[in-house]
Amino acid sequence: MSGLVYPILLSFLSLLLCSCASPWHTISTGTSLQVDHEKVLLISPDTTFSCGFYPSGNSTNAFYFSIWFTHATDKTVVWTADPRFPVNGQRSMISLNHDGNLVLTDVNGSTAWESNTSWGKHTTVSLLDTGNLVINASADKIIWQSFDSPTNTLLPTQHLTRENRLASHSDYHRLYFDNDNVLRLLYNGPEITSIYWPSPDYNALQNGRTRFNSSKIAVLDQEGNFLSSDGFRMIASDLGLGIKRRITIDYDGNFRMYSLNASNGNWAITGEAVQQMCYVHGLCGRNGICEYSPRRVSCTCPPGYKMIDPENWNKGCTPTFRIDCGQPYEEFTFIKVPHGDFYGFDLTSNTSISLEECTKICLESCLCISFTYKGGEGLCYTKNLLYNGQVFPYFPGDNYFKVPKNVSSASSASKHTGITACSPERSTVMLVSAYSKNSDNITWAYFYTFAAILGAVELLFIITGWYVLFKMHNMPKSVEEGYKMITSQFRRFTYRELVEATGKFKEELGKGGNGVVYRGILGDKKVVAVKKLTDVRKGEEEFWAEVTLIGRINHMNLVRMYGFCSEGQHRLLVYEFVENESLNRYLFDDRDTERLLSWSQRFKIALGTARGLAYLHHECLEWIVHCDVKPENILLTREFEAKIADFGLSKLSNRDSSSLNFTHMRGTMGYMAPEWVLNLPIDAKVDVYSYGVVLLEIVTGSRLSSEVTVGKEDIDSLQISSGETEGREEMGLMQFVQVVKQMLTSGADLDIVDARLKGHFNHEQATVMTKIAISCLDERSKRPTMDQIAKDLMVYDDEDYHPAYF
C-alpha cells in the first residue's frame, strides 16, 4: 500500500508547487499547470511575454491557453492554442507529458488541444523573447513552434507563408497568400465569400503588386517594416529599433500595425492596410450600409429595414416588408440614397439608359430590390442581393431602394437627403473601438487626404508605365516576358482582327455545343485559340460585362482568356493556345499507343482538374459553375498539366445563391448530374458529379459515360445480378458504380485500372481516386466539395513515384 501512496503524494506536491510557484522560462516533461485566473506557466527571459491560462471575455468560467504581452495594459493576446473552443475554469490542465506532447485537457479529461509531438522524456518547452513558444527535442532542435500556426497576430521575425494565415476572432476575415502569389484580405462569411484587399477592381500591377514571385512570404522586422514578397510594404510611423510591435487582423477586417508605449502600456496604431474602412466586405452585414461620419465609421440600415442584432452589426439588416411577384407595380416606389452603392451581386447591368428606364427594369423584376444608377454614363445595375453597401461622397452614382409606398411614407429617410441611421449609439461601438487610442488622426485623414491619394496613385501608375516602356531593353528576357504578359491585359478585339488572325477561320481545332474553335496568330506572333460562339442571345453590353469578368479569372489549371469580340451578331472569345489538345484524345484512342498516358500523368491531371474547379467554386470573385465538365473540356499543356476550358460560359452566379436558375439543361449526356433530369435546383455539386465520371474515366481509360465493359467473372464473384451473356457484360454507369462499390467494401482486387498500363500504377493513388469518384456520384447532399477533393488528392501527391517504366 505504501508503494502506491508515495507516488500519489509526490504527484500532488508537484502539482501544488506548479500552481503556486513563479512561472518558468523552460519546463520539462512531467510538468503541468491547472487552470486559474491568468495563471502563468511560462514567461520569456526578458518578461515581455507570458504564457498560460487567459480568461475568455464572454464567460467568467472559460479560459484559453494563450500567449500575451505581459506589460500591455490590456494584456494583449498574440497566440491561442485553439481560439474556437475555450476550456472549463475548473480542473482543466496544460501538461507536457512524458511522451513529450504538450496537451491541453478539459475538466472531463478530454483533449482540447495538443502539439502532436512525441520525442520522449528529454523534451522541453520554452517561451522565447520573440513571443515564440517552442518545443525542443534537444538544445538546438525545435520540433514544434507557435510561430508556425499564428492566430490573429504576427510578431516581429514571425513569417506569414503559403502554409498559414491570420484570421480575425470571428474567422470571417483572413489575411493570406492567394494562388496568384498576392497577399490578400478575404471576407469568408456565413453567406458570401469575397476578396476586398487589394482592390478586386484592379489587377496585381495596378494594385502595386507583382505576381511573379514564388516565395509567398511576409514578415515584420524589428525596425517596423512589414514586407511581403508581392511588393506590399507597410512602414511604421515610429520606425526604429527598441519598440514592441505586432501586426493584427482586427475583428473589423482590417489588419494593422501596433506599437506599444512602454511608459503607459497602451497601444498606438502605426500603420494599417485598408485606408477606407467601408471597403471592408461584410462589415455591416447583409443589407447594411457603411458610411463615414466626421469622427468615425458607422453602419446604418436602408429605409424600411431594421437591424437584426443591436450588439452585432455583422448580422446586418432585415426588411420590415415583403415584395411579392404578384404585387402591382403601382404599389412600389423608390427611395434614393445619394452616393450609395452595393459592391457586386448585380442582377443585370445596362449602359446608356435613362434613370426612368433603369427604374422600370427594376420595377418589372420581382427579384430586383434595389438598383445603382450612374447618371453621367447612364449605367444601371439592378440588385437582388445587397452586400458590401457604402455611402461615399466621391462615388458618382446613387442607390435606389424598392419599397412599398406605405413604407416610404413612414420612413424618415424620405424627409431628408441622407439615409436614416436606425441603430442605437452602442451598436457602432464595434467599429469605433478599432480606432481606439491615438487613432483620431487616422480617421480624419480619410477626408483631408483622399483627393491627394487618388492623385498620387494615378501619378504612380503613369511613372510605372513610363518605367516599364522605356527601361524594358535593360531587363533580362524572362522578366521582359513577364512584363509583356502583364501589360497585354484582357482586351476587346475587332472582328476583322480575328478574321485575319485565323486566316478567315481556316484551321479548326475542335467543335462543341457552344461553338467552333480555330487556331489563330495575333499580330505579336502569339498563338491563340479563337472560339466562334453560336446561339448567344445576350445583348452586346451584357455579353461584354460577363466575359470581362471571366477574363479577370487567372489560375494555372484554367485556360486563360485573352479577350473577346462582340460586333453585331459576332461573338468570339480569344484563349491561350494549349499544345496537347484535350484529355479525351489520350484516354479513349486505343489505336494511338504513343498517346497513352502514364499513371503519374493521370494523377497530375486529376489533381489539376480538381484544383481548377475548386478555384471556380470557392475562390473566384464571382462563383462559377462550369456545367459541362468532361474530358473534351480538359486541355493538356506540353508538360501534361490540366487546364479547364469553357468555364464561365454556362452561367455566372452570385456566390451566395443556393441554386442557379437555368431555362434549359446544360452539359453533355453521361456527365450530367441527375438534378438536371429531375428538375431540381442546380448548384456546384453538378460539377462534382461530372468530375466523378471523369475521374473514373482517368482510372479506367474507358468512356464510362456511355457503356462499360466489365469481366463477367467479376460480376459473378460479387454476386451482382445482370443479364446472362458469355464472357463480358455491358452495363450502364450506375451499375458499374455498384460493381466498384462492392469491390471496395469486399476487399476484392480493384481490377478496373486501365489494362494498357499493364499493372504499372500506384495502387494507393488508384484506390483513393476511385473512392473519391464514387463519392462524387452519390446523391447531392453526400457529395464532397471540390475544395475537399483537391485537399484529399494532395495528400497522395507523391512526386517521387516515377518508376523507370513510366
From TrEMBL:
Catalytic activity, as annotated: L-threonyl-[protein] + ATP = O-phospho-L-threonyl-[protein] + ADP + H(+); L-seryl-[protein] + ATP = O-phospho-L-seryl-[protein] + ADP + H(+)
Q: Which SUPFAM superfamilies match?
A: alpha-D-mannose-specific plant lectins (SSF51110), Hairpin loop containing domain-like (SSF57414), Protein kinase-like (PK-like) (SSF56112)
Domain named Protein kinase is located at 503-805
Question: What EC numbers are recorded for this enzyme?
Answer: 2.7.11.1
PROSITE patterns in the record, alphabetically?
Answer: BULB_LECTIN, PAN, PROTEIN_KINASE_ATP, PROTEIN_KINASE_DOM, PROTEIN_KINASE_ST
Q: Which UniProt keywords apply?
A: ATP-binding, Disulfide bond, EGF-like domain, Glycoprotein, Kinase, Membrane, Nucleotide-binding, Receptor, Serine/threonine-protein kinase, Signal, Transferase, Transmembrane, Transmembrane helix
Query: What subcellular locations does the record give?
Result: Membrane
The Bulb-type lectin domain, residue ranges? 18-148
Predominant location of this chain?
Answer: membrane
In the UniProt record, which is one GO cellular component term? membrane
Spans through the membrane = 445-469
Query: Residues in domain Apple?
Result: 325-407
Q: Which GO biological process entries does UniProt record here?
A: recognition of pollen; response to other organism
According to its UniProt record, this protein's enzyme class is transferase
Instruction: State the annotated membrane topology for this chain.
Output: Single-pass type I membrane protein
Signal peptide region: 1-21
Gene Ontology molecular function: any one: ATP binding
Q: Which Pfam families match?
A: B_lectin (PF01453), PAN_1 (PF00024), Pkinase (PF00069), S_locus_glycop (PF00954)
Q: Where does ATP bind?
A: K532
Family the UniProt entry places it in: Belongs to the protein kinase superfamily. Ser/Thr protein kinase family.
What's this protein's name? Receptor-like serine/threonine-protein kinase
Which organism is this entry from?
A: Lolium multiflorum
